[in-house]
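Bench notes, afternoon.
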Amino acid sequence: MLQANVDGDLKKFIIELRNVCRSKFGYTVFKDFLVLVACAISNAVDKNHYKEREELYLNTVKNYERQEVEEMAALFAKLTLLMQKCSEAGFLDDVLGTVYTQGKFYSAHLSQFFTPYHIANFMAKIHTSDLKNNEAYQKYGLLKVSEPTCGSGIMVLQLCQELREEGINYQNSVFVEAWDVDMVCSLMAYIQFALYGIPAIVVHGNSITQERYSIWYTPRLFMTDFVTKLRIREQIELITAILNQEKEEIIVKNTALPMFSQSQKNNIKIEELTLF
């Protein structure tokens, strides 16, 4: 379900994506489309992973004819315009998640269940006041949001939409760390966060075991001073943790920041909102 009045554009997009390569399984085409788009976005800003992304791009694109690749490129442009229409209408709609489900590109054996819009919107409204009154936000001017099972990113999208309606510019004050064990889901979230201008790190990996298969940084993260803000915040919290040694246990939280060495192994407690 989309809030913006773009049903016609959405249906046309689904049909055109299905027609890209009829000889291939719909799930495969959708996944490959996400890979090509995600690599194109990533390689524009993240030079540390350029070689890795370029190899992934070439290994994917070789399975398609030139005309099919050009059609996918055109669909990327149409996706960007579709999401721009949603944003201009005041909504951060879950466009790719809707395409995935309504277009039935999913694989039945995965048994995936996505959070309905009305549930995501309800939970976002509940958490919005908590975020605005968050102690860390008052101190650092930065809201850190953790999504351990992000799916297509609908929870984060609704949260940012609610913040914008409350007068908080999520593009300058919210940092998102989102995880999903499924590659398709993590790429849907990454692309949508990137195109809506959400500063985020999206991890394709297991948030329980902390095993990371790939890490994706949205362009907005490089356009602001988020890395500096997070470094300062972690250093302050480290010092605070050291000064509060009377606490028996301090929770470890590693943030995979761009151009960071591996996060310090020191035990650091970071207050954050966790979305479920």
